[in-house]
Amino acid sequence: MALLEWTAPYRALAAPLMFLTFSLVVALPPLFLHILLHPLTYLPSPSRPASYQFAALRSKFFYYSWRYLSPLADPNDAPKKRPLLAQARGTVLEVGPGVGDNIKYYNRSSVDRLILVEPNVNMHPDLLKKANAAGFSVDDSSLQLLGCGGAASDETALAAAGVTFDSVDTVAAIHVLCGIPQPAHAIEMYRRFLKKGGLLLFYEHVRSEESITAYMQSFITRWIWTQTADGCCLDRPTGAWILGGPDAAKGEALVTGLEMVNEAGKADGLVGRRWSKVEIKRPADHQRFSCIPHIMGWAVKA
Predict the structure, then answer these.
(1) CATH of domain 77-301
(2) Which stretches are transmembrane (predicted)?
(3) All structural domains of the chain with their residue ranges
């Protein structure tokens, strides 16, 4: 038992290392083939510098890996996502839906309109197919697919598409706040998009509360994870930003946001400020030394 406990942080590395290995195996062959078939697309030019080409290749690589990994991960995530997303209602804004494996969990009779914000346009054909299968369509205006990002810097582009403050009933963030630039400010923007009483639904992986695991998360993120997972970071204190806003996580004490809630998962001290009701918790299958620990919950805009 002592040996198992001592090796737990190191065994926790298995999940991200397996993800990286599988990504390389499934994504590199089609990526190389794509480059061979479209070599001129990735040659630097005055209008498309090398940095632009690298970003395009990174997005393509992530698509090739995520189209396989997302369906594989979905059965394990389904018990968490299904009851969470079933709460969505009215006009729903989902940020970073990827290849669309969350869409089937929405209650079609409760969702009038679904706005999908996905900057990786390689994902769009999969998104449209799965949205149509779930009963959403561009033709009847129940579906809107946007190619802009969900970062705070994309506020103007979102507004041009009709996504403005106090305009949506639900915002869904599922495995996306880990990769958005300036995430704390993006979360605040989503809160402002919500109407009064609107719901923010979230299921995100976050920084570990265990110091040794948190160090591993930061090391992996800095040297390889961000580049292979399209900007994803393993070590963000996302829960603290959701609960307390952009300034909430400046201190090292706030790691997940769980420090800001009571034993029932309620953030009573924050009620009436940013949110009227909040619930945040660990999933039932949480493992203490996991390098990809999760939080999930909901918040009602005050």
Answers:
(1) 3.40.50.150
(2) 12-37
(3) 77-301
